[in-house]
Design goal:
This protein has 2 domains: 1-107, RNA polymerase sigma factor, region 2, helix turn helix motif (Rna Polymerase Sigma Factor, Chain: A); 110-179, Arc Repressor Mutant, subunit A (Orthogonal Bundle), CATH 1.10.10. 23% of the residues are buried. The longest helix is centred in the N-terminal third of the chain and has 23 residues, at 24-46. By secondary structure, it is mostly helical. α1 packs across α2 and α8 (142-149) packs across α9. 72% of the residues lie in helices and 0% in strands.
Length: 179
């Protein structure tokens, strides 16, 4: 947003250049542009809204420390993803130490389809699940996934292939998606 309340239409690159020159409003624009994405990704890893909001703060604090002098060499989500992932994993580990049985019983019930799909995805190896979600939920290209996860594009394709094969062969998946 700018002084008039209108969204800032500058590109990420232009905003980063402005932040590098001390424009705090440009950083705020980047924050508002990517905060929902960060919270969504963090929630996917943590399963906890409060933890996801903590990850949002940690991620943008980390990002702010890169200035001045930050250079964007890919999409900003490609830069932010590893930070979101690492902070989320740390938050999940911290929360797992403090989860009580009462907290688990207070969780809202999921639909049978959601539970089935969650179960199927849970059976995939973590590396395959991550690539699958980045590709089909977040719409990242193979090259973007490779950059974000820091693996070769061929490995991304292989993991995606095996994840899809496992889903096709899983009887629960067939039950969920066949009429």
């Amino acid at each position: 947003m700018n002084e008039t309340g209108a969204p800032d239409s500058r590109s990420d690159e232009a905003l980063i250049a402005a932040v590098n020159h001390g424009d705090t409003a440009a950083f705020e624009t980047l924050y508002y542009r990517y905060r929902d994405w960060v919270v969504h990704m963090a929630f996917r890893f943590t399963g906890d809204r409060d933890a996801a909001l903590d990850v949002l703060q940690e991620t943008f604090l980390y990002f702010s420390k890169k200035f001045p002098g930050f250079r964007l060499t890919a999409k900003l989500t490609t830069f932010l993803y590893p930070a979101v992932r690492n902070y989320s994993i740390a938050a999940r580990r911290k929360n797992e130490r403090f989860v009580s049985e009462d907290a688990v019983s207070d969780m809202p019930a999921a639909s049978a389809a959601q539970e089935g799909l969650t179960e199927v995805l849970a059976h995939l190896p973590a590396e395959q699940r991550e690539v699958l979600l980045l590709r089909f939920v977040d719409g990242m290209s193979m090259e973007e996934i490779a950059a974000v996860v820091r693996i070769p594009a061929g490995t991304v394709k292989s993991r995606l292939h095996y994840a899809l094969k496992a889903l096709r062969e899983d009887p629960t998946t067939k039950m969920l998606f066949e009429p």
